[in-house]
Design a protein that fits this description.
The chain has helices at residues 2-27, 35-110, 214-221, 230-233; strands spanning 122-139, 142-163, 168-179, 184-199, 202-210, 240-250, 254-261, 276-285, 288-297, 312-322, 326-336, 348-359, 364-374, 384-397, 400-418, 421-441. The protein has 442 residues and is of the alpha+beta class. The chain folds into 2 domains: 2-94; 123-441, Beta Barrel (Porin). Helix 1 packs antiparallel against helix 2 (35-110).
C-alpha cells in the first residue's frame, strides 16, 4: 500500500512540476531569468504538500491495519469465549444427567437393607411325564390287562432346593406315580440330600440322589418322558439310591460320578451287611460323548440272617454324537447275576440300544429307538426282548413337549419285567401303545 501511495505522490509531483514550468514559459517569455527561482519555490512547496499527503495516507493505512488486527483479535477472543461457554454448558449438562443416578445411589446407601429370608435362597421346581394312549397287551396272542384307552401320569416330581452358602445346599424331591398293583397313587421321596460343593472337581452328596449312570444316559437320549432308558426299562438298573455320592468335572473334557449306596433303590432304603458301588467316567469333546460305567454289590439283599450266593455286577458303555439339530447314539450293558444274588444258580444278561433324533426347527422334531436284550443268557438262552419306538415331537415352549409316538415291545420264550409291566408268556408277549406322550417343567 505504501509503495502505491509513493508512486501516486511521485506522479502528482511530476504533474505539478510540469504544470508549474509550462505555465510561466507561456505567460511571460520576456522574464525568463526570474522563472527558475519561482519554480524552485513552487517545487519545494509542492514537495512539502506531497510529503504531507504521503504521511497522511501512510498514517491512515497504519490505522486501518491496526483496526483490522484489533478486529481479528476480538474475533479470536470471541470464538475462544464461545468454546469455553460450550464446554461449561456440556459439563453442566453431564452433571445434570448424573444427578438421578447419584440420588439413587445415595438413597440406596442410606436405605436399610431388608433382612434375607429363607425363601430368597430357595427354588421350587417340578416335572411331569404323562400320556393319553391306547395299549394293546397280548400274552400268546390273547389280549390281557392293561389293554385299553386312558390317561396316565407316569411321573410327577416336585423339587425344593435350598442354598445355605456357596458350599452347602440341600434338596428334597418327591416322586408321584399310580400303581396298578395296589390300585392307588404312591408318593415317594426320590431325592433327599445335603450337598457340599468343595470345587467343580468335587461335589459330595449324602442321602438319596441321582446314580451315576441312568440319569446321565437319560440326558444324552433326550426322550425320557416317552420311555425309560435301556437298563431302567428292563430293570437292570435304577435312577437313584440312598448313600454317599461324589461327582465332578476333571477339566474341560472329563467328568466322573461315583456312589456307595444301599443297593435297593430309592423306593426301598434298607440296611445290609455291605453297600454297593456304582461309578461312571465320561468325556465330551465337541459334539462327541463317550462314557463307561459299572456296578457291583448285593443289591441290598445281604440282610442279617439272609444268604447270598453271588455279587451282582454290571458294565455300561455309551457313545453318542449330539448337536442342536440331531443326535445319534448307542448304549450297551452286560450283567452277571443281577437277578441271581440270592439263588445258587448264576446267570448273565446283555443288551444294546440304538437311538436317534432330528430337529426340523425349534418346534418340530422326529425320533426313533431300538433295543435288543438277552435277559437270561445262561438259564434261558432262548428268551429275548425286542423293543422300538418312533414318533414326532412338537415343542410349543421351552418347558413343554408333546410327542405322537408308537411303542412296541416283544418278549419271546418267557417273561420280562419292564417299565411297562411284565411282558411275555410261554411263547411270546407283545405290548403295543400309540398316543400322545408329553412333559412339562417349571
Amino acid at each position: 500500500m505504501k509503495s502505491k501511495l509513493s508512486l501516486c505522490a511521485g506522479a502528482a509531483l511530476g504533474v505539478m512540476l510540469a504544470a508549474g514550468l509550462a505555465a510561466p514559459s507561456q505567460a511571460a517569455p520576456r522574464k525568463a531569468k526570474a522563472a527558475p527561482a519561482a519554480s524552485q519555490a513552487e517545487i519545494r512547496e509542492l514537495r512539502a504538500q506531497i510529503e504531507a499527503l504521503t504521511a497522511r495516507l501512510n498514517a491512515q493505512e497504519a490505522a486501518q491495519a491496526q483496526t483490522a488486527a484489533a478486529a481479528q483479535q476480538a474475533q479470536a477472543q470471541a470464538e475462544t469465549a464461545t468454546t469455553q461457554v460450550q464446554a461449561v454448558q456440556a459439563a453442566a449438562d453431564s452433571q445434570i444427567k448424573m444427578i438421578p443416578d447419584q440420588v439413587k445411589t445415595a438413597v440406596a446407601a442410606n436405605t436399610p437393607k431388608p433382612k434375607k429370608s429363607w425363601a430368597d435362597d430357595t427354588v421350587v421346581s417340578g416335572r411331569m411325564y404323562y400320556d393319553i394312549s391306547n395299549v394293546t397287551n397280548k400274552v400268546d396272542g390273547v389280549k390281557k390287562a392293561p389293554s385299553g384307552n386312558g390317561f396316565d401320569i407316569k411321573r410327577f416330581y416336585v423339587g425344593i432346593d435350598h442354598k445355605f452358602n456357596d458350599t452347602f445346599s440341600a434338596n428334597i424331591t418327591t416322586d408321584f406315580q399310580y400303581s396298578s398293583a395296589i390300585g392307588a397313587t404312591e408318593l415317594y421321596i426320590k431325592k433327599a440330600y445335603l450337598q457340599a460343593k468343595v470345587s467343580d472337581a468335587l461335589v459330595i452328596r449324602a442321602g438319596s440322589t441321582d446314580l451315576p449312570w441312568v440319569p446321565f444316559a437319560e440326558d444324552v437320549y433326550g426322550y425320557r418322558y416317552v420311555e425309560n432308558t435301556l437298563i431302567d426299562r428292563t430293570k437292570f438298573g435304577t435312577s437313584a439310591d440312598w448313600g454317599v455320592h461324589a461327582s465332578g468335572k476333571l477339566g474341560p473334557i472329563f467328568s466322573y460320578a461315583v456312589a456307595v449306596v444301599d443297593g435297593n433303590g430309592y423306593k426301598n432304603p434298607t440296611r445290609a451287611k455291605t453297600m454297593d458301588v456304582e461309578g461312571r467316567l465320561s468325556a465330551q469333546l465337541d459334539n462327541v460323548i463317550l462314557a463307561v460305567g459299572g456296578y457291583s454289590g448285593k443289591l441290598g439283599k445281604d440282610n442279617q440272617g439272609s444268604v447270598t450266593y453271588h455279587t451282582a455286577n454290571r458294565f455300561n458303555a455309551l457313545a453318542a454324537y449330539k448337536t442342536k439339530t440331531y443326535r445319534v447314539g448307542v448304549e450297551y450293558f452286560s450283567t452277571e447275576n443281577w437277578n441271581n444274588v440270592a439263588t445258587a444258580v448264576s446267570d448273565k444278561a446283555d443288551g444294546y440300544s440304538v437311538f436317534g433324533s432330528y430337529q426340523f426347527n425349534d418346534k418340530f422334531g422326529a425320533f426313533a429307538r431300538y433295543d435288543y436284550v438277552k435277559p437270561t443268557k445262561d438259564t434261558a438262552s432262548a428268551k429275548k426282548d425286542g423293543y422300538y419306538n418312533v414318533g414326532l415331537t412338537y415343542s410349543p415352549a421351552k418347558i413343554v413337549d408333546f410327542s405322537l409316538a408308537y411303542k412296541h415291545d416283544k418278549v419271546e420264550n418267557g417273561t420280562l419285567s419292564t417299565s411297562n409291566g411284565v411282558i411275555g408268556g410261554v411263547r411270546q408277549g407283545t405290548y403295543d401303545e400309540i398316543g400322545i406322550f408329553g412333559q412339562f417343567r417349571y
